[in-house]
Amino acid sequence: MTNLLEFDRDALAAFCEQLGEKRFRATQLFRWIHHRGASDFEQMSDLARSLRDKLVGKAVISAMPVVSEQASSDGTIKWLFDVGAGNAVETVFIPETDRGTLCVSSQAGCAVGCRFCSTGHQGFSRNLTTGEIIAQLWFAEHHLRKRLNLPEGQRAISNVVMMGMGEPLQNYSALVPALRMMLDDHGYGLSRRRVTVSTSGVVPMIERLRDDCPVALAVSLHAPTDALRDDLVPLNRKYPLAELLASCNHYLDKAPRDFITFEYCMLDGVNDRDAQARELLALVANSGVSCKFNLIPFNPFPESGLKRSPEARVNAFLRVLQDGGLVATVRKTRGDDIDAACGQLAGEVQDRTNAKTRMTRAPVRLHRSDSTTAQAIRAGRQETNA
Ligand code: SAH
Ligand code: SF4
After folding, report:
1. Ligand 2 atom 4: residue of nearest CA
2. Which of the listed residues 127, 261, 296 should we mutate to test ligand 1's pocket, taking the one with most ligand atoms within 8 A of CB?
3. Which residues line ligand 2 at a C-beta cut-off of 6 Å?
4. What is the mean pLDDT of residues 208-233?
């Protein structure tokens, strides 16, 4: 059985042709799936009967089973999806006044193994398919529209960040068609500035993304020197800072008004001293990369042995960057009461022996934060419309 969520519009057209149907019918079908959230071919009233009949029994439109759903008091919602063989991935919806952001996973586990990351500590299980990546958006968008009772034509999700579990650029061939579906006007119609790929620095794939699908790029920097970055982000030994920054510059060649977002996880006594902020200033100035800094307070988990920098330290570090002329902000921590904050996504790969009990965890009741979520979306859309 073929899952049609695996296909971007070109691939769907090829599939329709194989069934002996005209390519243009694929656009109609694609819109039913992604615009309207349909999963039943009978619902697709204006789709040729011949095509509907051929699809039944050959194809399905289906997301992975939801294992659990948790809602934070701040309106953040986290879903855990079962991707089989004891693995699961997490997806997080973060409502803000002016946007609704979905944080999407690209892999079950991650092979990069950053010291401060809970996903990295679990090791790598497998790449998600294109369908499993887009299913997170398909499910969340249509589920939220219904649940929050959004008026016809109003979207719940305005931004996607590939900042969930996994290193998206180590799953490149599945990632790019999923990104294209996010940008496609017949799909989710997101502008390329509202779709962000976050990477720990897979240099050759940054180069390819520039040519194939140049969405917004966030680079997880975390250290001003190779010695420290080698230790925190092991991939740095393969692609050191000079190469990484050169590829950032090259990425921006084609879109001079764009910038790279540098993410920097603030670790107590490790990378948070004023002297290190000054080293960062020099590094970035020498590279000439047009950028913004996003400081992320570290979200601790027991196995890391690391601590979050105190707030005063984060603010002092921020000031050094800002006084040096950089645009820098501190990321607000959202959803930490449900372990949905950056670097806390654990899925099921962490502890296989425990997988059974965790997989059967009862879903949390949602009513209270649902209204927080709905309010945030409505308030945001009113502002947008104003
Ligand atoms: N693999 C990609 C995207 C997923 S991680 C990457 O590394 O960029 C998304 C962001 O969360 C990255 O910037 C990562 O450095 C950050 N992060 C990971 N663990 C964290 C933690 N425990 N606390 C705060 N941020 C963390
Ligand atoms: Fe992988 Fe990103 Fe976590 Fe590093 S921070 S281990 S690259 S998910």
Report:
1. 114
2. 296
3. 110, 112-114, 117, 119-120, 166-167, 200, 220
4. 98
Domains of the chain: 2-60 (1.10.150.530), 66-385 (3.20.20.70)
- Least Cα distance to 35 among 184, 170, 161 occurs for 184
The residue whose CA is least distant from atom 8 of ligand 2 is 166
Q: What's the CA gap between 190 and 81, in Å, rounded?
A: 24
Please report the pLDDT score of residue 374 as a whole number: 54
16 CA to centre of ligand 1 in angstroms: 39
Cα of 30 from ligand 1 centre, angstroms: 33
Locus of tokens 């250290």? 223
Distances (CA, A) of 117 to 109, 112, 233, 313: 11, 10, 10, 21
Counting beta carbons within 10 angstroms of the beta carbon of residue 200, is it exposed (0 to 12), middle (13 to 18) or buried (19 or more)? buried
Look up tokens 């934060």; give the residue. 369
What is 62-77 written as a DSSP string? Answer: -PPPEEEEEE-TTS-E
Q: Which atom of ligand 1 has the smallest separation from the CA of 198?
A: 8
Ligand at minimal distance from the CA of 304 is: 1
* Separation of alpha carbons 199 and 217, rounded Å: 8
Work out the average pLDDT over 123-144.
97
Predicted TM-score (pTM) of this structure: 0.91
The residues annotated as belonging to the active site are 90, 342
E strands present in 267-384: 291-297, 327-330
Question: Using one digit for the tens of pLDDT, what is the confidence trace for 304-340?
Answer: 999 999 999 999 999 999 999 999 999 987 887 777 7
